[in-house]
Amino acid sequence: MAVLEAWFVSGRIIDLILAIVLLEAVGLWLWRRVSGRGLSIAEIIGLLLSGVFLILAVRAALTGAPWPLISLLLLLSFAAHLYELWRRLAEKGVFRS
């Protein structure tokens, strides 16, 4: 149990999760390159960026970072979420008059 606790307290568990997200992004990009189908790089970034900022905020909180950094990461996550929402709605033509 001490090993798992150390992974959380040090933030290494978050590093592992971020590595998995990076592998997901690379896998999605490679799928697009190989098959010609799938998400564009902008779609991949939009899909994953808000989650990455949330994960970084958790890491900051676990490792005792100052609250302004945590709130900045949460704000960046929200901004990335709004970007992705706007991009998807624009793609659907919601903003056309």
Describe the structure.
With 97 residues, the chain is an all-alpha fold. The chain is 82% helix and 0% strand. It contains four helices and no strands. It has helices at 2-10, 12-35, 41-62, 67-91. Helix 2 (12-35) runs antiparallel to helix 3 and helix 3 runs antiparallel to helix 4. The mean pLDDT is 93.
Residues in helix, %: over 70%
Please indicate the percent range of residues in DSSP E strands (runs of 2 or more).
Answer: under 5%
Largest sheet: none
Radius of gyration: 17 Å
How would you spell out the order of helices and strands? HHHH
Structural class: mainly alpha
Please tell me the overall pLDDT. Answer: 93
Unreliable stretches: none
How many strand segments?
Answer: 0
Spatial separation of the terminal alpha carbons: 59 Å
Question: In one word, what is the shape?
Answer: flat
Annotation field: number of helices? 4
Short description:
This protein is mostly helical and 97 residues long. The protein has helices spanning 2-10, 12-35, 41-62, 67-91.
Features:
mainly alpha; 97 residues; 4 helices
Task: Describe the secondary structure blueprint for this structure.
Layout: H1 2-10, H2 12-35, H3 41-62, H4 67-91
Helix pairs in contact: 2-3, 3-4
